[in-house]
Amino acid sequence: MKVGIQGIGLLAAGLEGWRAGRAVLASTEPFAPIAVPDPEAALLPPNERRRSSDCVRWAVHVAQEAIAQSGLDPREVPTVFASSGGEMGVLDTLCRTLAEPERMISPTLFHQSVHNTAAGYWGIATTCQQSSTALSCFDDSFAAGLLEAITFVSVEQRPVLLVAYDLAVPAPLSEARPIATGFAVALVLAPPSDCSLAGMHLRLDEAHQDEPTGLVDSALEQVRQDNPAARSLPLLRAIATGGSQRVRLSLLESQQLVLDLDPCRN
Amino acid sequence: MVAVAEAKQRYGAHRVAVVMGTSTSGILETEHAYQARDLAGSLPAWYTSRYRYTHNMFSLSHFVRACLGLRGPATVISTACSSSAKVFATADRMLRAGLCDAAIVGGVDSLCLTTLYGFSALQLLSTSPCRPCDEDRDGLSLGEAAGFALLESSPCVSRRGAVALLGYGESSDGYHMSHPHPEGSGAVRAIRDALGRAGLQPRDIDYVNLHGTATRVNDAVEDKAVSSIFGRTTPCSSTKGWTGHTLGAAGITEALISVLCLKHGFLPGTLNCKRIDPTLHSRILRDNDVRPVRRILSNIFGFGGNNCSLILGTLR
Question: Tell me, what's the ipTM?
Answer without folding.
Answer: 0.97
